[in-house]
Specification:
Length: about 130
């Protein structure tokens, strides 16, 4: 629950920072989000941007695709670093990295849920406009 709340707080902070710096809308205008169309569009864009980025990062984490980055790191270190090898092969390297990172993490799952909610809220705030 702690990781979920931290992820939620950090992502909301980033949304409000995007809202403020990219669109110039102060956070004090938040109560007007449903009545003011331009503010609603800006808030939907901010939530959509953060939601999509979080979705892809969390998807990498949930599917364990980050192992590809570990293998790239091993290849670069084994080719370019000129010191005595700490690891005899790739399997030892991945086991050591897994121990250093503390095994599995629930960050990806929480981040995936939050990002899906952000994208749904963004679509609800500003659905696709009808064609002219």
């Amino acid at each position: 629950m702690k990781k979920f709340l931290i992820t939620l707080f950090v992502s909301l902070t980033i949304i409000f920072m995007v809202q403020h710096f990219a669109y110039g809308q102060p956070v004090s205008e938040l109560p007007n989000v449903l009545s003011n169309r331009s503010y609603r569009i800006d808030m939907a864009n901010s939530m959509g941007i953060v939601g999509i980025i979080m979705f892809y990062v969390s998807l990498i984490s949930v599917t364990s695709a980050s192992r590809a980055f570990i293998s790239i790191g091993f290849a670069v270190k084994s080719i370019f670093v000129r010191y005595r090898r700490k690891y005899s092969d790739y399997y030892d390297y991945t086991e050591k990295k897994r121990e250093e990172r503390g095994g599995s993490s629930s960050f990806g799952f929480y981040s995936l849920l939050i990002s899906i909610v952000y994208v749904i809220i963004a679509l609800w705030l500003d659905p696709f406009p009808p064609p002219n």
